[in-house]
């Protein structure tokens, strides 16, 4: 079984499958009547919700509550597992979040996928489902999320920048794009986002850089693509944000934003 459309009309309360998407594939805005757990095995993807964008990597997972509108855009070929969980099991208290997938969670996901969808929720499967939901709830959230504003003028600007993070046009240009005076733009941006425009754009670039490096691009190539004068200045900003160097990421370290950058 592959793709959500292949689910039976009345699946068990937990059901899942392994899947893959080609580079460049976009799964447009949609929502599910169940909570969705995605476990990413290889590749890079941007998942966007109405409140922000996430860039999970291999070894990480993402929980999307039932009814949450989201979109996935694959930067490279993507291999992943997905589990759909009935709201009666997951409840309303699990927020949308990205996290590192524990070995226990991997085992539970593998067990559910191995059952395909023709199984009864006996005591064993019920225990597996409850334990998986508990693991999702316990998993520490990775704060590598790119917040988006609610004001439609600011959001238009932010979406343009996330589409082209290497764009170096200055704040005066973006204020004009939003139809605002520079002072109005900066004040509204700070109030909506809790940070200045320059700090937000730096975050866009380092999160984009982390995704590209994890996908195999060189640090120098990423730095120049994102508008930095040299790889050293990019590496400095990357380390300041994530607490590890870009080189460490290439060799398997999983960066987490410092609380001060929240």
Automatic annotation (TrEMBL):
One Pfam assignment: AraC_binding
Annotated CDD domains: cupin_NimR-like_N (cd06124)
Record's keyword annotation contains Oxidoreductase: no
GO terms for MF: DNA-binding transcription factor activity; sequence-specific DNA binding
HTH araC/xylS-type domain span: 155-252
Lineage: superkingdom: Bacteria
Keywords for the protein's UniProt record, in alphabetical order: Activator, DNA-binding, Repressor, Transcription, Transcription regulation
PROSITE patterns in the record: HTH_ARAC_FAMILY_2
Listed name of the protein: AraC family transcriptional regulator
């Amino acid at each position: 079984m592959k793709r959500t459309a292949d689910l039976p009309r009345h699946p068990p309360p937990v059901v899942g499958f392994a899947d893959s998407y080609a580079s460049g594939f976009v799964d447009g805005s949609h929502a599910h009547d169940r909570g969705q757990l995605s476990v990413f095995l290889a590749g890079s993807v941007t998942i966007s919700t109405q409140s922000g964008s996430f860039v999970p990597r291999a070894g990480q997972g993402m929980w999307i509550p039932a009814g949450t509108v989201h979109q996935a855009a694959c930067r490279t070929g993507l291999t992943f597992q997905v589990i759909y969980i009935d709201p009666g099991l997951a409840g309303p208290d699990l927020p949308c979040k990205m996290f590192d997938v524990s070995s226990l969670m991997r085992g539970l996901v593998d067990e559910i996928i191995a059952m395909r969808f023709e199984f009864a929720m006996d005591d064993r499967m019920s225990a597996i489902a409850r334990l998986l939901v508990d693991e999702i709830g316990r998993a520490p959230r990775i704060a590598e999320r790119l917040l988006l504003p609610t004001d439609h003028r600011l959001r238009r600007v932010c979406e343009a920048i996330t589409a082209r993070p290497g764009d170096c046009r200055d704040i005066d240009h973006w204020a004009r794009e939003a139809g605002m005076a520079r002072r109005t733009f900066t004040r509204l941006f700070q109030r909506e986002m809790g940070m200045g425009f320059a700090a937000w754009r730096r975050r866009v670039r380092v999160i984009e850089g982390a995704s590209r490096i994890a996908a195999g691009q060189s640090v120098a190539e990423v730095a120049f693509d994102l508008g930095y004068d040299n790889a050293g200045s990019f590496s400095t900003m990357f380390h300041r944000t994530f607490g590890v160097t870009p080189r460490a990421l290439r060799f398997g370290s999983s960066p987490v934003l410092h609380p001060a950058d929240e």
